Amino acid sequence: MRRVILEPGEVFSNKHLKRTGAFNAAALTAATAIIEDVRERGDGALRDYTERFDGVRLEDFRVPQLAVDEAAAYVDDGTARALRQAASQIRDFHERQRQQSWFTVREDGALVGSKVEPLESVGIYVPGGRALYPSTVLMNALPAAVAGVPRIVCVTPPAKSGMLDPAILYACRLAGVTEIYAVGGAQAVAALAYGTESIEPVAKITGPGNAYVAAAKKVVSGDVGIDMIAGPSEVCVVADATADPALVAIDLMAQAEHDPLAACYLVTFDEAYADEVERAVERHLESSTRAEITAASLADQGLVVVCRDIPQALEAVNVIAPEHLELHLDHAFDLLGAIRNAGAIFLGAWTPEAVGDYVAGPNHTLPTGGTARYASPLSVDEFVKKSSVIQYSPAALARDADAVTTIARHEGLWAHAMSVEMRRNLLRTGNVFGEEGGPAGAASGAGAVGSGGADA
């Protein structure tokens, strides 16, 4: 792992980081071409890309309901129990995020409020490739179900047999997914965004994926909603001499084993302690089933930051703005207020990041690549939309008329001002054109405008 040794008073900055972003130019170019092809050729393009990238040619992409119902029989009891426990705790956490419509009425009779509605449809992308992720199904579909989304579509790459992992199908059933399609990559994102002969488009796409999936989400964003553009996984562990080096090492490796591009940061206070952690990593690698990926990640993307004190360390964390932050420090909760930028914060030695990945309840779809500076974890809010509601009474219009017309005229918007001025005239004189009158019949024709209101 690369090292940065900070001097007293030195500020850690972005120049110390070597981030490459969620995707590269080649991925963006390739994803754009795939999307245009899917828009033009629909299912035919999906079949060609699935055969090319996944090694299987499918005639039908939709997984039949019978296969979903039967999947539980092919999931071992321990995995099924764990998924049910995870689903229960994830649902409970996200139920607490639900928002309701609200309305308030001012003394002058004006009603204002916010109407909350679930999205009509969402598509969740579940990655394949190096690992299988039933947990991603739960983390994306359950918030949508809690929000009340009636159509939840899952897309995920098929195996070379054309089948999907039974645990993914079982997780879909637990989470309330209504449609499942065996298609992945940028082509799946295109199908969700624009539709094909067999896949109806959705209103929003969520879920992580590789660089091509991230690039595809960027391309379709604006035509369809997206949650975020997720880059490689990240963890930042802040540890002092009281932390067990073996536990710190395994927590770094828990992110490194995802991907050679996964970024792992160790923020500590002593070079000798950092040496101990790296030696512990070497020992763990001897038993790892993903040693090659893990070692590549730590060698190429790993960074040790040696700080002089806690304030300097926490400021380094805020610059890194990690996806996952672990505080292996005594009284970690007392430091929470100093953390401004992190996707998820794990407090104390008994809270490995893995509990957040699977069963704790908070969402594991988190901002990466420093975007925790402004972005938040996936939540129920991603699956609802809000409409402002406004209903004025005659008294409310009279009260606000001067302010509205003054601002409108300052901005040079004549009709804006007149739409209020004419109503005020109607209130004052019974004629929308004021005391000097207007076209014959104007007053009687407009009289109905003033008859409604928040009290009607």
TrEMBL record:
Active site positions, chain numbering: 323 (proton acceptor), 324 (proton acceptor)
Comment on bound cofactor: Binds 1 zinc ion per subunit.
Binding site for NAD(+): 125, 187, 210
Keywords associated with the record: Amino-acid biosynthesis, Histidine biosynthesis, Metal-binding, NAD, Oxidoreductase, Zinc
InterPro entries (alphabetical): Ald_DH/histidinol_DH (IPR016161), Histidinol_DH_monofunct (IPR022695), Hstdl_DH (IPR012131)
Pathways involved: Amino-acid biosynthesis; L-histidine biosynthesis; L-histidine from 5-phospho-alpha-D-ribose 1-diphosphate: step 9/9
EC number(s) from the headed UniProt entry: 1.1.1.23
Statement: the UniProt record of this protein carries the keyword Metal-binding: yes
Alphabetized GO MF terms: histidinol dehydrogenase activity; NAD binding; zinc ion binding
A GO CC term assigned to this protein in UniProt: cytosol
Cross-referenced NCBIfam families: hisD
HAMAP family linked: HisD
Function description: Catalyzes the sequential NAD-dependent oxidations of L-histidinol to L-histidinaldehyde and then to L-histidine.
PANTHER family for the chain: HISTIDINE BIOSYNTHESIS TRIFUNCTIONAL PROTEIN, HISTIDINOL DEHYDROGENASE HDH
Recorded family membership: Belongs to the histidinol dehydrogenase family.
Protein name: Histidinol dehydrogenase
Organism: Gordonibacter pamelaeae
